[in-house]
Amino acid sequence: MEPATVAARPSPLRGLLATARPRQWVKNGLVVAVPAAAGALGQAEVLENTALALLAFCLASAGTYLLNDVADLEADRLHPVKRTRPIAAGEVSARTATITGVAALVLACAIAAVSGLALLAIVAAYIALTTAYTRWLKHVPIFDIATVAAGFFLRAVAGGVAADIFISKWFLILSGGGSLFLVTAKRYAELRAAPVESQRRVLSEYSEEYLRAMLATIAGVVVVAYCIWAFGRTGSATWATSASAVPFVLGIMRYGLLVDQGHGEEPEMVLFRDRTLLGLAFACIVLLMLGTVL
After folding, report:
1. Do residues 242 and 181 lie in contact, with contact meaning Cβ atoms separated by under 8 Å?
2. Cβ–Cβ under 8 Å, residues 149 and 183
3. Which of 13, 28, 170, 283 could form a disulfide with 229 if both were Cys (CB 3.0 to 4.6 A apart)?
4. Would you call 195 exposed, middle or buried from its count of C-beta atoms within 10 A (0-12, 13-18, 19+)?
């Protein structure tokens, strides 16, 4: 007689790691944007402070994801996809996730403080914003989009602040506009993809027509801001920086097409799964690098 097989219990540690969403930490790569655009990553002090900022945001985002899933526990259990999340599925207790999330946030602030008070203030602002989003703002139309976009924006600013690098007003507009574009596209994709009964409450306040109009408007602002920033750069290789506007604009157009085709719920996956978008991003980065090293 064969012994009965015992189903393996899910590992709480694995569940915590999954809830922290490490694949979405790629968004924290925005921290590197300002030092990289300035061509300053070769300086030891800049590299060290940028790495601290990156680590702080990875911990902060992990902590907020954990606390967000605890707050969304009941709603996630009704969602066709989100019900498989470790906390909603009962693999990780809400208490364990809360303790781990708070610990990650405290550690993020401690690491940011090593770099300086300015970075600590930005990380603290990010945590405050995401906490307000989790508790309240995610149910308020417009503010739900603006709050998530502000999280992207703070990441981009954090790298420049940590490395003590000047950030131009056009780069700030570009960062803010780009963040709004990604988050609006995410809401548009969510509205089209999820059944009405499983949608987040705030989606009922939007229409596809409104979000499409917002995407077109924001895309225009982003393209203009990038072109002004790129053409306004000075140096021996301004041609390369100016030329980067071509793959950038094509990238915005390509991303908009993919969103219209039903993608966009997970921006990081849209980028890594589309070869055309990856190629355009690579070309833009190469041209920007040439603009700083030649």
Report:
1. no
2. yes
3. 170
4. exposed
